[in-house]
Amino acid sequence: MTSESSCRICGDTVSEFLDFGTQPLSDAFRDPSDTTEEFSYRLAVGKCGTCAMVQLMNEVPREAMFHDDYPYVSRGSSVMREHFRSLAHGFLSTELSGDDPFIVELGSNDGTMLATVAEAGVRHLGVEPSGDVADLSAAAGVRVRKDFFEEPTALEIAETDGRADVIYAANTLCHIPYMDSILAGVRALLQPRGVFVFEDPYLGDIVERTSFDQIYDEHFFLFSAQSVDEMARRHGLELVDVERLAVHGGELRYTLALPGARQRGAAVAQFLEQERTARLGEQEVLEQFAANVHAVRDDLVALLTRLREEGHRVVGYGATAKSATVTNFCGIGPELIDFVCDTTPAKQGKLTPGSHIPVRPPEWFSDDYPPYALLFAWNHAEEIMAKEQAFRDAGGSWILYVPTVRVV
Predict the structure, then answer these.
(1) Which residue intervals define the domain C-methyltransferase in the entry (predicted)?
(2) Were 376 and a residue from 272, 318, 332, 385 both cysteine, which residue would form a disulfide, CB within 3.0 to 4.6 Å?
(3) pLDDT tens-digit profile of 265-316?
(4) Exposure of 133 by Cβ count < 10 A (0-12 exposed, 13-18 middle, 19+ buried)?
(5) Residue 328 located in a structural domain
(6) Residue 12 lies in a domain
C-alpha cells in the first residue's frame, strides 16, 4: 500500500516509492529477559514533488531514538577519528583562525571532532541530547550542552556565548524532521559571514549502490544537492559549496551561509547538473531503485538459506543501526545467522532489534572463525577486512550485499 504525506521542508505532497514494512527502533538492542512489547513503526520513504526532498513517510519521536542509552560512538572507527581530526584542523586553519573564534557542533556525540578544537584552545560548544555520549565528550575536555538543538536553544547560546563562526553537524541533520526550527536556529546563531557545514549520506550514492540500509528510523531525510539547495533557499540560507566524502558509504558535505555572505562555489552547479543528468529527482528512477532493493533482498535471503541448508555456519559482523533495516526487511533471524559480533560493550549480550539475533563480543568471532560472515558494517569494509585478515587466512569468506549480493 502506498501513501502520501506532507513535506517537512515545503509542506507539499510527498509520494511514497518504497515500503520496508514494520520495523523496530534501529538502536533498541534488547535484553534477552525482556518480554515487553517492542516499539514498532512503518518504515517507508517518499519524495516531495515540489522541493525534491526524499524523506520518511512516518516520524519516530526523537526521545525514543536519542536518549541516555544511545549506543553509537564516533571514536569506534579509526577512519572516522582521522576524518574528524582532519576536519577540525581544516576549520582551525580557515574559519577558526580569526580573533576569538567560536564553533558549535550539533549532535557532537562523544566529542571526537571537538576534542581537537578544544586542544587548540578555541571556544566551542557541543549540543548533544544523548546523555551517556555527551558525558564521554565532557570527560575528553569538550564543553557540551545536553540538549536538542532548535531555535530557542540557538538563541540562548547566542545570548551567552555570542554568535558562531562555524556551526557543524556530521550524520546529524538528516536525523531531524523539524528542519524549520533547526535552520531558524542556525540563522540566529551564525555570524554574518559564518558558515553552517553539515555532512550526511548522499541520496545519489544510495540509489546508485542500492545501499538501502541507509534508510532507517534515524535517517529521516536523504539529502541531495538539489533538495539541500531548495531547503536552504526556503529557509533564508544559501548553498555555497558541496564536497564529496568517501566515509559512511558515500556522503556529501554541504556548506550554507546567509544570502550574499559567501560566493557560491563552482561545485554547487556541477553537482546540480550531475543530478539532473542522472535524473536523481525523478519518480521513475526512485521506483527502479525500489525494484533493485527487492532484488537484493531476495538474493540475500536465498544465499543465506542455501548456506544454512548446506550446513554452513554464518555470523554477522557489526551490529549497526542500519542492519535493523536489513534483518527485519529480509526476515533474517537466528535461524539464518548464529550471532552478530560487535565491539560496542553496550550491545554485547543483547539481541538485535526486532530480529532478536544475539550480539557477541569480537572474541566469539576470532576464537572459532565461521566459514562465512555477513558484513553489516560494509561502509567500513576496507578497515574491517584489513583488521580481520586472520579470518580470510583461516578460509573465511565475507558476504556483502551492497551494491549486489556476493561472496568475497
Answers:
(1) 247-403
(2) 318
(3) 999 999 999 999 999 989 999 999 999 999 999 999 999 999 999 999 999 9
(4) buried
(5) no
(6) no
| pLDDT over 80 (residue 233) | yes
Handedness of CA 143, 145, 146, 151 (dihedral sign): negative
Distance CA 303, CA 390 (A): 24
Residue range(s) defining the domain that contains residue 183 = 74-283
Residue 351 placed within a domain:
no
Contact in structure between 217 and 66 (CB atoms under 8 Å): no
| Domain presence at residue 403 | no
pTM exceeding the 0.90 threshold for the entire prediction = yes
Domain count, the chain: 1
Strand-strand pairing, 144-145 and 164-170: unpaired
Tell me the helices (H) and strands (E) count for the chain, helix number first: 14, 18
User: Cβ of 291: how many Cβ atoms within 10 Å?
Assistant: 10
How high does pLDDT run on average in the chain?
93
* CATH number, residue 237: 3.40.50.150
Give 343's contacts (C-beta < 8 A, 6+ positions apart). Answer: 76, 361, 362
Intra-chain end-to-end CA distance of the chain, in Å: 37
- At residue 62, the pLDDT reads 67
Look at residue 256 and give its three-state secondary structure.
Answer: strand
Rounded CA-CA distance 304/170 in Å is 34
How many CA atoms lie less than 13 Å away from 355 in the CB half-sphere?
A: 28
Radius of gyration of the chain from Cα atoms? 21
Contact 109, 73 (CB under 8 A): yes
pLDDT at 2: 55
Distance CA 164, CA 189 (A): 6
CA distances from 261 to 56, 157, 184, 255, 291 (A): 32, 22, 17, 12, 43
